[in-house]
Amino acid sequence: MTAMAYLAGFIQVSGVVVGTPLVIGLMRQIRARAEGRAGAGIWQPWRDLRKLFGKQLLHPRGTTWVFAAAPAALAATTLVIVATAPLVATDSPLDPVADLITVVGLLFLGTVALTLAGIDTATAFGGMGASREITIAALVEPTILLAVFALSIPAGSANLGAIVGNTLAHPGQVFSLASALAFVALCIVIVAETGRLPVDNPSTHLELTMVHEAMVLEYAGPKLALVEWAAGMRLTVLLALLANLFFPWGIAGANPSPVDLAVGAGAIAIKVALLASALAVIEVFLAKLRLFRVPELLAGSFLLALLAVTAANFFTGAGR
After folding, report:
1. Angle CA(81)–CA(87)–CA(90) in degrees, nearest 5?
2. Where are the bilayer-spanning segments (predicted)?
3. pTM value?
4. Which residues constitute the domain of residue 185?
5. 240-264 burial string, b = 16+ CB within 10 Å, else e?
6. Which of 205, 227, 234, 288 is the most buried (most CB within 10 A)?
């Protein structure tokens, strides 16, 4: 690994950490404007985090170290994904392990940590939210594997940097049937993984419909701030991965210069802002699905991912 690879890793980690509250603020502001409200501004999530970090640290009576460690585990796994994924450049300090199995495993590890924390509270809402979250995760993670695997077939590698590099070298693959199916499947599972409408409503506190919020009801102060920050970073890095897997133009290639890294950082910031804005606008016109309808939606996304793998195998084999 060169010094530029480590610099790229530093830029994307610091960019996601600092920029995540702005992404959440942008989405809330766009949704407020679309609903005819003034909105609190894109800086409001930063103000909320500052307020939460300044509060007293509280622990519910009867909880164990699992509840206390879950926010740190969620944040740590997310940051490793950020450092691993090709966001600013195709090379990263963790490039040898930057494959789709690593990313999916880290996503699931963070989910398990949070669900165990929900169960550890021994409350009805915590257990309910944990049960719903792990059910959704069991349907989401295989779909992510299949969708990205469809993109890895033409590249001949499961390494994310190699997949992005192959798309840069063969831009026509973006408009293939396999890419279109994989893109739709990934959009659906990213919505489910990050708890957005129509799978979950991040702004609701109606107990019977909560998923993510039900697991974190007992958190307060700095722990709650860390959970919300980590959840926002998950959304940001998944949107960034979606952008670079299908629209990688602007990302720095191998052996980049500082100018290439600056262009790559600017490009991924614009792409994430556009995807986040589109997601916020779409959410205005969506209602939350009933819980028993969510597996049907995720099963449909799994079928799309499976069709993407089939199409990628067929057309790659035909091309040979």
Report:
1. 105
2. 6-27, 65-88, 100-122, 134-153, 173-192, 231-251, 263-285, 297-315
3. 0.94
4. 3-318
5. bbbbbbbbbebbbbeebeeebbebb
6. 234
